[in-house]
Design brief:
Layout (H helix, E strand, L loop, with lengths): L15 H14 L13 E5 L11 H19 L3 E5 L1 E2 L3 H14 L4 H4 L1 H15 L2 H8 L10 E2 L3 H16 L3 E11 L4 E3 L4 E16 L6 E6 L10 E4 L14 E2 L6 E2 L1 E3 L11 E4 L5 H9 L26 H14 L3 E14 L7 E10 L2 H12 L4 E3 L3 H10 L4 E2 L1 E2 L9 E4 L5 E3 L15 E3 L3 E2 L1 H5 L2 H4 L8 H6 L2 E7 L3 H15 L5 E7 L2 E2 L16 H8 L1 H11 L6 E2 L2 H25 L18 H22 L3 H28 L4 H22 L4 H10 L21 H23 L8 E6 L3 H9 L1 H8 L1 E7 L8 E6 L2 E6 L6 H26 L2 H6 L2 H31 L1
Parallel strand pairs: 1-2, 3-4, 9-12, 16-24, 23-24, 25-26, 27-28
Antiparallel strand pairs: 5-6, 5-15, 7-8, 7-14, 9-13, 10-11, 15-17, 18-22, 19-20, 19-21, 27-30, 29-30
Helix pairs in contact: 1-22, 10-11, 10-15, 16-17, 17-18, 17-20, 18-20, 18-21, 19-20, 19-21, 19-23, 20-21, 21-22, 23-25, 26-28
The protein binds one RNA strand through β8, β13, α8, α11 and α18.
RNA sequence: AGGCGCGUAACUCAGCGGGAGAGUGUCACCUUGACAUGGUGGAAGUCGGCGGUUCGAAACCGCCCGCGCCUACCA
């Protein structure tokens, strides 16, 4: 695998540029990301949330795909049949808008081209620009099976869409009807409820006087949209509202028109809002529409699809809806109907694609009856076939599903899956077929016409988990990889997408589309603000990757991905994690100095750890623990925990302690000691590389490639399995030695002893076992604390004129030959004593409390007693040191 | 209006019933045979407030104060 000429000394610091490019190429060339489908292996599959084909990688994508890639790489290394399906979404309105804008620069509209030519133009655009986001995902190292890339408009997926539509129609779950929908006057299309975004806006509330037809009085109504009054077909009041009970037979003379409209009684009206009277415009308001239905009020549309007033608006015809509003208000005022204008903040619905104010309007649309589908989805979540992480989303999910309305799936645009429905122009028969018909199925006429509407983009993405695997064919992929293992996506498309996948998957596959759903937070700036171009606080992952390297970005995102919290991303943190990558790099560089010429089999020494010196047993114990913790964290989607466990282990255990500790052995003339050190060192380094590879694939693969021996690529190596090496006794012993070392270093630092100055130290400890242990490690301790000599005894003369440090029941003394700053030393001891006394007081309080002794579990009581004894011993030592200090002073 | 979430060291956050933690920053000292993108040591917190449950609360419950987000048919 490795060529001789590739072997090189590792550079002094990690330079990612060439490394990243190189490995992207090799992973691809070696087919490492290709899904395997071997018999008898567990399978792990993920489908990517398909980014819009118009998309450009933003930090949300970066987070989402890092998380997926971490899991996918982890499971691939675990030996599972692993599939990650990549692809993009045709993004109906968004893509059409992009191409329309392009046409606009040529002074054309899509109507100039006509439907077919326009669609061709969109395909051209896609061929040219549609690969952008895919290439950016590749650059991140996303280990998708790129040969299986799908597009929601490609042939296979379009077939699935058509099949689903036809089946749902034949089952009676798709219907066509004239209903009120959200209409975008700019996009000229209907929008689903969740495609409308609500934003609080400052508006006005207009109070208008509606006189009775018989001139006997009037009623005042309030509205934020006075122009819609032209379409009013009634006034509604609450049936129990005494103020209006006499109006049953009185008509209303609608101002500015010559129409008379009835008063109806409806429970929907809030008695205490305004005057308790509501104007009813069934054609332009969802609630009014429903009131209208209940009372058989006529539906009168006064606007066209551009949001311009139509003939029904009388003299206002031709005015834009907002101009009309002004004019209507003027006229009402001049004719004395306007009572009052009040400032009023309220939520205004806007198109999620173009932010145009949405106009609720009745029109002929296609709908899915979602209730039966939604019930199945809810059931699957309730009985645990689908788990949602973090748990907090269950409530939101259920309440949304309980209130779900039929889904409007038709869109009056051109780019998308055209609805497979034909109408016979002769007999009016409606045909919905999976194969294009050429004649009417009823009268045989060939004078038939296909529906011009296309389907909501989310209709095709709802099928994504099975359509990408070849449905409706029963493919091997479906057998092995469906249901997928986990869906990782942002919470904001829980309903747009996740819920609909559940419905479609359960309905057509009779099985959930994924077993787990992990909903991650949105990435915000370091102050918690939404990133936006206008605020200028956008963190661009492409810039980050160039500046800090892809691994640093991936590690940062992984470390930030705690469940259920918004992610505040701070560029400084990315820099910090880049230092970590460099730290790992240098640790490897150091290791290479010692193992470069060795045979890879030197790691065999770990097979009998009990024969190894203590420090190696210690690092192997810690390694086993780390493997266990990382695996568990990844299995439970605790990405941040996985990252921090690794960070802590690599930096603070492997580098800070282990590498420093074994230097002596590595340079030793004793071959056994040296080879043991080399072997364990190489083993632990290999394990670390494997452990972190899913998070930081590039740097680990690079280091791996220069390690001794012929080795397959890291990306397809086996993920570490924890051996039975955890050893509490070993860890306690090393902990004690570390305490001693820290104590001596502390004395040196506090006493301002120059780091290179060699000094003597004494340790007194009554515990035989401990003193013996320390005896064995005198040389290691001395070299790590730069001692001239270290004397250990169970009892003996306490050196005078010495700085002191108390650790457990040990007294550590460093004689300073008149250099002891008595005052400083006294303060230090006092601080120490205060600290001990404080905790001791707490513990004594507990142990003196009968209720505590009676109620607390015995092991807790024991633990507290142990702590008490330890603290008392330590307090004794401190007191003694203080006494001696007083003698000197 | 309802729902959800968050307030822990200067900053960003972890911990979510048994001795207050990490990273960054900060201070002091240090180019010791991988790393100054480094090492060693230190300082730093009434865990938003008030009550309650408990032998024991940063954690559980209630209320309050601040801050986000989502949903909603008060026109």
């Amino acid at each position: 695998m490795k060529n001789r000429d590739e072997q090189k000394t590792l550079a002094k610091s990690y330079e990612f540029d060439n490394v990243e490019e190189k490995w992207l190429q090799r992973w691809t060339d070696s087919g490492s990301f290709r899904a395997t489908m071997e018999e008898g292996k567990p399978s792990f599959s993920v489908v990517i949330p398909p980014p819009n084909v118009t998309g450009v990688l933003h930090v949300g994508h970066a987070l989402n795909n890092t998380m997926q890639d971490v899991l996918v790489r982890y499971h691939r290394m675990c030996g599972d049949n692993t599939l990650w399906v990549p692809g993009t979404d045709h993004a109906g309105i968004a893509t059409q808008n992009v191409v329309e804008r392009q046409l606009a620069t040529e002074g054309k509209t899509r109507h100039d081209l006509g439907r077919e030519a326009f669609i061709e133009r969109v395909w051209d655009w896609r061929k040219e620009k549609g690969g952008t986001i895919v290439n950016q995902l590749k650059r991140m190292g996303a280990s998708c099976d790129w040969e299986r890339e799908r597009f929601t408009m490609d042939e296979g997926l379009s077939r699935s869409v058509r099949e689903v539509f036809v089946r749902l129609y034949k089952e009676g779950l798709i219907y066509k009807g004239d209903y009120i929908v959200n209409w975008c006057p700019r996009c000229h299309t209907a929008l689903a409820d969740d495609e409308v975004e609500h934003e609080d806006k400052k508006g006005k509330l207009y109070h208008i006087r509606y006189p009775f037809a018989d001139g006997s009085g009037d009623v005042v109504v309030a509205t934020t949209r006075p122009e819609t009054m032209l379409g009013d077909t009634g006034v509604a009041v609450h049936p129990d509202d005494d103020r209006y009970s006499h109006l049953a037979d009185v008509g209303i003379k609608l101002p500015l028109t010559d129409r008379t409209i009835p008063v109806v009684f409806d429970h929907h009206v809030q008695k205490d809002f305004g005057t308790g009277a509501l104007k009813v415009t069934p054609a332009h308001d969802r609630d009014d529409y429903e009131i209208g239905l209940r009372h058989s009020l006529p539906i009168m549309k006064v606007m066209d699809e551009h949001g311009v007033m139509n003939d029904k608006a009388g003299k206002y015809a031709g005015l834009d809806r907002f101009d009309c509003r002004k004019k209507v208000v003027e006229d009402l005022e001049s004719q004395g109907f306007l009572v009052e204008i009040e400032d009023y903040d309220h939520a205004v619905g806007q198109c999620y694609r173009c932010a145009t104010v949405v106009e609720p309007t009745t029109s002929l649309q296609w709908f899915v009856s979602v209730r039966p589908l939604a019930d199945k989805a809810v059931e699957a979540v309730r009985d645990g076939r689908i788990n949602i992480y973090p748990k907090t989303w269950y409530n939101t999910f259920y309440s949304w599903m309980d209130n779900i309305r039929d889904w409007c799936i038709s869109r009056q645009i051109w780019w998308g899956h055209r609805i497979p429905a034909w109408t016979c122009k002769d007999c009016g028969e409606l045909m919905v077929e999976s194969v294009d018909p050429d004649a009417c199925s009823k009268c045989g006429s060939s004078n038939i016409e296909q529906e011009t509407d296309v389907l909501d983009t989310w209709f095709s993405s709802a099928l994504w988990p099975f359509s990408t695997m070849g449905w409706p064919e029963n493919t091997k992929e479906l057998q092995i990889f469906y249901p997928t293992s986990v869906l990782i996506t942002s919470f904001d498309i829980l309903f747009f997408w996740v819920a609909r996948m559940m419905m479609m998957g359960l309905h057509f596959m009779d099985e959930v589309p994924f077993k787990d759903v992990y909903l991650h937070a949105l990435v915000r700036d370091k102050h918690g603000k939404k990133m936006s171009k206008s605020t200028g606080n956008v963190i661009d992952p492409l810039v980050i990757m160039s500046q800090y390297g892809t691994d640093a970005m991936r590690f940062t995102l992984t470390a930030f991905a705690a469940q259920g919290r918004e992610i505040k991303l701070d560029e400084e943190r990315i820099e910090g994690y880049r230092f970590f990558i460099n730290k790992l790099w240098n640790a490897a560089r150091f290791a290479m100095m010692h193992v470069e010429e060795c045979d890879a089999s030197i790691t065999d020494v770990v097979n009998s750890p009990e024969k190894l010196p203590l420090i190696h047993q210690w690092i192997l114990s810690r390694t086993a623990k780390t493997i266990t913790d990382v695996r568990r964290a990844l299995d439970e989607y605790r990405f941040n925990d996985a990252a921090s466990v690794i960070y802590q282990f690599v930096w603070h255990e492997f580098c800070d302690w282990y590498l420093e500790w074994i230097k002596a052995d590595l340079f030793s003339k004793d071959e056994t000691l040296r080879d043991q050190a080399r072997g364990v060192l190489l083993y632990v380094l290999e394990t670390i590389l494997k452990l972190i590879h899913p998070i930081t694939p590039f740097v680990t693969e690079e280091i791996w490639s220069v390690l001794p021996g012929d080795r397959p690529l890291l990306v397809t190596s086996e993920y570490p399995v924890a051996e039975d090496w955890q050893n509490e006794n070993v860890e306690n012993q090393v902990e004690l030695l570390m305490g001693v070392i820290t104590g001596i270093r502390n004395i040196r630092a506090e006493a301002d002893v120059h780091p290179s100055a060699k000094i003597d130290a004494f340790i007194l400890c009554a515990d035989m076992e401990k003193t013996e242990l320390i005896q064995v490690f005198v040389s290691a301790i001395s070299s790590m604390t730069r001692l001239e000599s270290l004397t250990v005894a169970t009892e003996g003369e306490k050196p005078s004129d010495a700085a002191t440090y108390i650790y457990q029941d040990l007294e550590i003394y460093v004689p300073l030959k008149g250099l002891v700053d008595v005052e400083k030393e006294r303060e230090k001891l006092e601080r120490e004593r205060n600290k001990i006394e404080k905790s001791l007081k707490q513990i004594n309080g507990k142990l003196g409390n009968k209720k505590f002794l009676a109620n607390a579990p015995p092991e807790i009581v024991e633990k507290e007693k142990g702590k008490q004894a330890e603290l008392e011993a330590k307090l004794g030592k401190v007191a003694e040191a203080e006494r001696r200090l007083a003698e000197i002073g």
